[in-house]
Amino acid sequence: MVFLKEFAPRKAERRPPQTYLKKTVLRSSVVVKFLPDFLVCTNKPLKGLASTSVNDEADQTLHSRDQDSYFSSDLGDDDVMMLGLDAENETDPLVFQVPAAEFQAVDIVVRLTSLVIDGVEFGLNSAVSDVVLLQGARGTDPSEDSLLVSLKSGFLLLIRIWKVSRTFLGAGYASDALQLPAPILYVYKPFVVQWWRLNDQRPLEMTGTALYSHDSGLAVVSVSPQSLFRIYTPENTDLGIAFKPHFNVPVDGVILHSCFAKPYETLDAISQILFLTLTLTDEKRLVLTLHSWFVADLLFQNIQKSSLPLMNLFTWPIMVIPLAVNSSFLLVCPDEFVIITAHNIWSADYSFHKFAYDGSFPTAYYRPPKDEDDDSRGDEFFLASDSGVIYLIGVASNESLEIRPFLRINEAISEFTLKSLQPRSGFVLEYSCDGGASKRLYFPHELLSLISSLLAAEKIPYSEGVLLYDYKGWTPIVDFALVDSPQHPIMSQQKLALTGSGKRTRLTLFQLGYCIHKDTRCYSALRKNKTIFSFNLGERLFLVCSLSAGSSLIEYSPTEMEDDAGAADALTEIESNHFESQMPTLCCGVVEEKDIMYQFVASGVLFSDFDSSRFESFGVKRLICAKVVGDLAALIFETDSMLSLKLFKMEVSGLEEEPTTLFFQPITDTSIEQNFSSFEVSRLGDTLLLFLGFFDGSVGIVQTNFQTGANTSTSFIVTETLESKILDVDCCVPSSFAYVPHLHTLFVGTINGSVLSFTLSNDLRVNFKRIHELGTDSVYLHSSVNDPNFLLASSTTLFLYNFYASEDPQLASFNDRVDRNIVMFAELPLTQAPYLPFAFLRDDGVIIGSIFTHITTLVKQVMIGVAAKKFVFFDVAGTFIILCKAKDPSGRLCFVDQKTFKSLQCDHTSSAPESEESSLVFADDEHPLCMHVWNIRRQDRTSKKLIVGCESENGGTLKVIDVRRKHLQDHTVAIEITELYSLQHNRPVTSICQIGSAIYFSSENTVYSTEYSMESKKFGDLGKVADMPSPVISISAQHGKLQVNTLRDSVFLFDKSSGSSALNVVYNDPVPRSLVNHFQLDSRMVLGDKLRSSMLVVDTNLSSRMANYCYQLLFIPRVFLASADASYDCGVENTMLILCVGVSGDFVMFSLVGNEDASFKDLSNRLEQKYHLRPGAPVQDFMDRLNRPFVGKLTGKGLHSLNRPFFDYSDNQGKVIDLDIDEIAVLGILKA
């Protein structure tokens, strides 16, 4: 119907009057495929595929061209002339001489909207339809793997992976960062080397729904939902694999399943390729069709097919698995397995081999790779089921099939791999399920042997395994809410959601930050220590922890196999006669180029190799602070209440030296006039920078040339450098310093939890840059020695500055349910990039952890245990109230504490203490459907109650419930709920909202209202205020106006006339949309369109009432009004944002900025400066430059990032400035 079609703006009105900025905050956790041991050539040239014709002209068609009868070559004369090719002796000008290939295996997880390579996420502009691995050769002469990914936006991408700098953008950009020595800098990054635009105008005929690759690598097939599939023939080039123009093969009917047959011959002698399709024809008949073609012949005159209609009673298969036995196929049905051979199809032979199956419903299969010396023709593969059982299927011949249970987990598996470790040492299972969980588990071989001895029909016990890694899934999202968190240093709002389904429903808290992986269990014996140091002595790694009364020496011995909680016995406390344990340690490390440890204590310094030692005393001087940089030691002494700063050069030749030989050579001696609060040293060549903080808020900087002894000094008051009064304190007492030389920036941590940054020039001039408030406790700063682009800041909570991405800090967390205070930390030697290893001293002890240096999603979850559909935050009790679908009436409301993020016990009480009636809030037939936090404004205060709408056998009820927090005798917290009032209604109550003292609720097509009287303490009579044309989905209130969302008639905006109870329609959408939800932003309304997966913006002040902005998303969006904060950087500050949340777990933010806004001008200036754009319209010039390689093309080659705007939906082109684009995202390093 024409009037239901989306009203697209005319071309003259396509670009909105203001600019929308788009930023993807979180990407879906749904796993499409696991690809372990993906082989990457690490030293191949940074070049994409070369075009074989000018502007790829020879490939610009969706159908293969007929062979030119005049020219026998694929290249035309113009192509040969312009590319400078010799038709008889062609030489590719882009051939590169490279050294011997070096390979590295990486692990890839293909998610719904991203590729995760060794834990680093690379986003896509659309959802993945399917992905197939194009495996290279193995053995003595290996070649790397490639990926073929189809997107739902209508693109097919050939992807290769390079080991590059994390700041490398792609072809055409400078790659100076490749020369930096920091090993943590490099990442494995995917690039598109060849792409095809699919026929997105006819979705049922758009290929890419399923992708298949032949075992030989000689053909790839892309399947559409019906009517056709495409054959892509690969060719090897000097720059990697490429595909020739494709060939379309028509198919009669809807394609249900398809696959390549396993070849008869060995892979190096393959001559014929077979491809099977199972289709449903227009006559509702299942038909098997076997397509065949010879490798040596041209496709357009080569393809043959044979069809076999199946019987009408044939069970629809769940999946089709190719078998190596006689190139046959296994059709997996719910209650049987059927083997059909190629001979059955060719000869119309219906004598299929069938095998009974009484296991649970099959969901996925995995075929482990065969060993190179295994020449058997039999098949072995694993079959997963919805009960969590994985079966081992063995097929020795067409007449023989064996089913054995292999292992069982407690979740339904949707995708998995099962990798065997060393012979008979166990298996590693990597799986995902539709309920959101994705994990990596280890199962010892001995335990699996017991399960394999059971028959398929026997009850299979759960397998005991070790959790190696938890991917922390958060899909599907059932409900979502934004909760204000004014006390949080980074996030102004908490993002929470109900995730999962059924008994696996969880309440999930989302944060962006850096995840810390536990390498050991916590060593709790040292939980009261205050400082920690680390050093290597030979091949041994030691930690020194210090108390006010002594020191402890710990040896760290990493173990190979660790579970998700880390190794249990990796930390060992040792005792040594050559270690000072009776006094607190002020500084500890290793002498430069010596296997000798130094330990500074108040009375002297101990030099030791743990076999012998030497102690040098400071005499009457008492050492109160020590810093060592290389062979230079900066020491602060106290003598007769006087402080002095002395600089020494340490010259330690050996512990066997004569006692008269001094290890310290004095360089300078400077007196300190007042007591100091912090001290730090930084070395720049022959110069030392010494930073001193004092309790009056001043900072002293001394620049010393330790070769000549020349000094330069300056000082400043921290608060006097601030441009305005941006702190609530009059004095900022420095607690720590960190100087980052390549940024010329000094970071100052204060005792009140702030971090201030200053530019520091060569002549010691200081200019204030910015401030970050991280907490309320003293800040400890540490610049990483492994990579100076990382700076850690701790104010009981840990934050990481990543200067590759931004100068704003992000949370770094162990992702524990209970947050632990971090007292101090010490950096360890780098062992595995991109992880920064540290020893953390927490309030529960010492733990070794590695910070993953790429930003990721941090989720904190609490299990609800029953299906749930809605939740609200009840701030009076500091708890989240969750509305559950429980059979037990006492469990239909669940409570989670906001602070501890743990479930709370709920006690039901009666409002009449002496009443004999049940105190349960809900009767057996009352099921809550919705709830709302009711604000009751009294003369001197505001109280809050919970209103719950229910359905029952007699219609529905509206209940007012009191929620209180109470403390139990065992010092735990519980929630007490009491029903205060219940209003009966003849129909179920589906949604509730409040405007002033009036309560509005909906039932079916009608909106009602009632008002609470403060005098009578009762609700007034119900009044019908509006009848809607279709059932009401939800109602809400903003700015004193009532918003009503209907099932089929979009949204209505009502305003209450003064002095009347009637509601007047202010706005209604003329297009009959089905919306998920909506909210009002000034005069605009933001809508989430369910049918078109779009975010719509309408201006209620416009007379046309039409949507003036529409953006198609990868998911069905729920829209929310969010505030900007540092953890969700969207390029703007102090503004309100549109947050779109999908059931798939994707979060996308939009911000509307004017072309004259400061944020838009700032972005324009940065683009103009970095990419040398023309002044006047740098943003448009930049977007045009990005799209230039794709304009007017259906396919092409090159080296492109995954998130090019062109790969988005065609209707979205030119509608946003996408901050996810690599070239824009990298501008974060330019922030001032």
UniProtKB/TrEMBL annotation:
Q: Which InterPro entries match?
A: RSE1/DDB1/CFT1, WD40/YVTN_repeat-like_dom_sf
Q: What PANTHER family does the record tag this protein with?
A: DNA REPAIR/RNA PROCESSING CPSF FAMILY (PTHR10644)
What is this protein's name?
Cleavage/polyadenylation specificity factor A subunit N-terminal domain-containing protein
Q: Which organism is it from?
A: Australozyma saopauloensis
